[in-house]
Amino acid sequence: MVRQEAVDRLRTLGVFTRQVAESAEIFERYGDVDGISEGISRPGWTVGTQQFIYFHLGEILKNPDYRAVFLDEAQKQLRDTGVRSEHIEEYFQSGADPSLVFSVRHGEEYDRTVRSTFVNAADAFALRKIRGWLGFE
Question: Could you tell me the residue ranges of all domains in the chain?
Answer without folding.
Answer: 4-134
